[in-house]
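Exercise: predict the structure of this protein bound to heme C.
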Amino acid sequence: MLVYLSEWLSLIIRWFHVIAGVAWIGASFYFVWLDNNLREPPAWKKQKGIKGDLWAIHGGGFYEVAKYEVGPEQMPSDLHWFKWEAYSTLLSGLALLAVVYYMGNPGYLIDPSKVALSGAGAVAIGVGTLVAVVALYEALIRSPLARNGMAFGVVLYLILVAVAFGLYQVFAGRGAYIHVGAVIGTIMVGNVFLGIVPAQRALVNAVARGEKPGEEVVMLAQRAMLRSRHNNYLTLPVLFIMISNHYPMFYAHAHGWLALAAIGAITAYARHFFNLRNQGQFKPSILVVSALATVALIWAMAPSAPSTVATHSHGTAQTDGDSAAAAPSPVTGAEISQLLATHCQACHAAKPTSPAFQAPPAGIILDSLEHLKQHGDKVYQAAVATHYMPLGNMSGMSDEERSLLGRWLQENR
Ligand code: HEC
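Solution:
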């Protein structure tokens, strides 16, 4: 019952998290777009201090948007800030991290074949990494490095790759990925909370006092610009990580951290094309390079072909009798049924006996050879090509058993 209720909890928080994230990223996409589409206003608007003008039609009505050079003469009584979208995305994200990864199935986080962490140890590493990396970022953005945007970008990228590498050594792939995502997301919300909103507040205060913004306000605004640019480049990678938990081919890959580093570089570079275009520079070569790099990544990550050299004899297969010694005896169905029962069915059954699951995970039931065949390719990926399954390998599935399963899947396509 507890598992059932916690599934509901995670569903509701996840739902909310996606809605908040859409509102946040959607608004920031909209404002980037707005800024890039402002046109020179007519003279009477310029006199009011308006520097850009935009007309739009949406939902059956005309909208007139104006952007001020500094601010309006008088503070409007209602000013929308767009900050709770970011904050609620972070809060719901942290809640989801706790429910799914810290209190949910330990197999998402702990992989005994990497490090046999305790539950509390894993949570400490996860939370500790999050706090440490965000603190490091905050220290760097206040340092002289912040004056060199390009160098800062490279340093930030290298830090994130190092975090991905480090976490990949201690956590199961999925847990490592989500923590990199959480680090990036928290940096982004920190940028809003600690940099962008304070700069806006200083500007609003100056306008409210009827003053021209002083040097300090301008400096705050400049630093906020850098933070905002980082958020712009981090958006696509963070969204990728958030959906990556549907794709074991990524996070369960032997070099999953490297694949993630490649995705980060490719998406940030592709984003660069759009940023340049918005500044009036058109460099399609960037998109071509990004596309070629993606093809190279697809090629580099491709699963190795099923190995056909696994000729070792295997324990229980005596029924095959006197087949020639040279050819490996075919794997029997009985062996595979036994293997499924030992290593898979606690979870992948219509009614799982594992206390962590109410329903078969990923909807995959492995209670018969027919069902196994039906999911053959996925099973091959999850349990043979990678060691992602059995989740956390609590039952201690051996390499021999994996190659046995691989051979059966090959022989019974
Ligand atoms: C402790 C529970 C548990 C055990 C034992 C287990 N699995 Fe899974 N399995 C899961 C969970 C949870 C998921 C969903 C994973 C996700 O969403 O990341 C899953 C997903 C899968 C998938 C789908 C992966 C995809 O491409 O989306 C396959 C295939 C699979 N398991 C095969 C197996 C096989 C084969 C075994 C036995 C050798 C096994 N599992 C043992 C919990 C388990």
